[in-house]
């Protein structure tokens, strides 16, 4: 597996995902080592300066006016990490912890935080050893950085707290010893530098962007299959009609749907004999507009992520000309806003998907199919309750779309009197993405059943989609235990396997 090189320059979203989710190894570039050594010399030159320097010779937050004598400054950094490793709740997913650790490493590598190169090489070694510190879900307000989550990472590097190694829950000291990694003994400024960043929320944003690239294409494919299964028309997807409203995402979604329906015998047949409706319902006709708006929201979020990935977030920072300056760059508002924005888009895409599923189940609206797509309506209920499952998820997604970033609770004796709640926005977005995955999976299994029951020749791509689904879900028939079918469809969507028909049949 190719290594991801961490240097003075920014990482890409794809590199973050490769390390966090794919386990790619990391290595530090020589320019990063040089930059860190240069800024460290600035910090060390201030160690015995009688003038106070935040995080070097003072306490933290509301205790910034407290002068710390020289002989207690290593204790200061150690105490900072221990006291701030105060998370609680369910264990945060390993991929999120790895992304957070990589992004903190990336900021250290800029040379703007004043840590020794040893700190960065230790973080890289922990990542490469597959050691994942345990972090609880609650503890970050998204301001002054993701303090508690980042403190748990620093605590593990010190050989304290608990970690997962090879899936096993073990003390950090044990895991480091097995991996041959010497625990860090933090010096001036280093504890502060390890906990002051937006790395947790940014890591979750990067992972979400990767997920949404897959899920929005899946939504396009699902909508195309639903149009075909519901005897709808593809005429509204025409490029010239879409160009009358030139949003980039709308054009991409419409093109994906056109390609998925290209060569559909079912649509050709209805084009010749007349469609069952003068106009399709909005959930079919307006899919490119809604999916496209979500795509454009993702593009905006990607631009924010790129700016954040190019940032050196710490307080104070060592400037390029050697000053040590306090700043407010740790505030998570830019990331928190787009995380909330994405949750809104996810809820809307899921809501439209559920409406398409519902049309399949209503005999008065499904173009001649059986009620609930049941084998023997009355005896059988078909997909009736699968739609209930969708509806419950969509209702939850609407609640999760309420922005976290509009809230703020002051902390640290009113020194930190406005916070971003960006970590909370990221956590709820992850739940939203899981919900969208499940909603789209149920639409796809319903659309495939509808296509089969209609009995008309599907397009090559939607026909291949039917085959992909039928490899893991038996064809329509008398009612059976439905939860395993839903679980199999969710797995197809979550892994991206459901997109094989699109990728295998690329346009010439």
Automatic annotation (TrEMBL):
Superkingdom of this protein's organism: Bacteria
Main location (coarse class): cytoplasm
Enzyme class, UniProt record, top EC level: lyase
Catalytic activity, as annotated: L-histidine = trans-urocanate + NH4(+)
Associated pathway: Amino-acid degradation; L-histidine degradation into L-glutamate; N-formimidoyl-L-glutamate from L-histidine: step 1/3
Keywords associated with the record: Histidine metabolism, Lyase
Secreted keyword on record: no
Native species: Antiquaquibacter soli
EC numbers, comma separated: 4.3.1.3
Listed InterPro entries: Aromatic_Lyase, Fumarase/histidase_N, HutH, L-Aspartase-like, Phe/His_NH3-lyase_AS
Protein's UniProt name: Histidine ammonia-lyase
An MF annotation (GO) of this entry: histidine ammonia-lyase activity
Record localization: Cytoplasm
Family: Belongs to the PAL/histidase family.
